[in-house]
């Protein structure tokens, strides 16, 4: 039986797919496929298909390609989105857009819990008719964090004693083999600075 309990290292410029579906955890893909097929029982799962093949018979390679596209997300970008909800982080991020010098933010002990819900389109008789929603939750606990912003982007982060977990679900149904412990580098200088796709929302009054 494959051991999926080993902690996965969260690499700079990595992707959520690589954390959720490591090459040593083939059972995760199988469990996702089975959960998706079960979810489609109300639209005649015998005929429900993706790429012209019944979900229950969908090759792991094809499913893996679709999951890779759905989870093509930098995990550190999720952390940045969570950090950007803090007023002091937003202020430093905005200030860095107009200042030449780097803007530093020091954070005390805190926890992060952020979720993304990408979907895979399911077809029946060649017509797109349903989607299967994935749920991926990244949780992290940090004793401290030092963020460095330059020109509106996160260029460096230093974290004190970071730990975390990654959990996967299909339509709200947990994928038992998809839960994974995470390891973080305590200090990272991003080769490609992380930039939010759109401005952070205004701080509440």
Helix-strand layout with pairing:
Blueprint: E1 8-10, H1 16-20, H2 26-39, E2 48-50, E3 53-54, H3 60-70, H4 75-83, H5 87-96, E4 103-107, E5 110-116, E6 119-124, E7 127-142, E8 144-150, E9 153-160, E10 163-170, E11 173-174, E12 180-184, E13 187-194
Parallel strand pairs: 1-12
Antiparallel strand pairs: 2-3, 2-6, 4-8, 5-7, 6-7, 7-10, 8-9, 9-13, 10-11, 10-12
Shape: elongated
Number of domains: 1
H/E element string?
EHHEEHHHEEEEEEEEEE
State the secondary-structure class.
alpha+beta
N- and C-termini, Cα separation: 53 Å
- Using DSSP, what is the number of strands? 13
Instruction: Please mark out the parts with pLDDT under 50 across 5 or more consecutive residues, or reply none.
Output: 199-205
In DSSP terms, counting alpha (H) and pi (I) runs of 4 or more, how many helices?
Answer: 5
Give the integer mean of the pLDDT values: 81
Helical residue percent band: 10-25%
Strand residue content: 35-45%
- The rounded Rg comes to 19 Å
Largest sheet descriptor: 9 strands, mixed
């Amino acid at each position: 039986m494959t051991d999926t309990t080993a902690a996965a290292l969260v690499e700079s410029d990595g992707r959520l797919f690589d954390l959720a579906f490591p090459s040593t955890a083939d059972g995760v893909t199988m469990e996702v496929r089975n959960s998706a097929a079960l979810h489609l029982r109300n639209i005649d799962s015998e005929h429900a298909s993706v790429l012209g093949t019944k979900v229950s018979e969908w090759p792991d390679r094809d499913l893996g390609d679709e999951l890779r596209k759905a989870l093509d997300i930098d995990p550190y970008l999720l952390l940045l989105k969570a950090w950007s909800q803090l007023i002091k982080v937003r202020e430093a991020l905005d200030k860095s857009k107009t200042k030449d010098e780097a803007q530093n933010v020091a954070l005390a002990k805190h926890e992060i819990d952020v979720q993304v819900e990408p979907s895979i389109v399911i077809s029946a008789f060649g017509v797109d008719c349903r989607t299967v929603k994935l749920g991926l939750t990244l949780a992290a606990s940090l004793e401290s964090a030092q963020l460095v912003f330059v020109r509106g982007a996160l260029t460096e982060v230093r974290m004190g004693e970071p730990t975390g977990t990654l959990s996967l679900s299909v339509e709200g149904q947990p994928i038992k083999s998809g839960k994974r412990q995470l390891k973080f580098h305590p200090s990272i200088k991003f080769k490609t600075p992380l930039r939010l796709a759109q401005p952070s929302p205004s701080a509440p009054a």
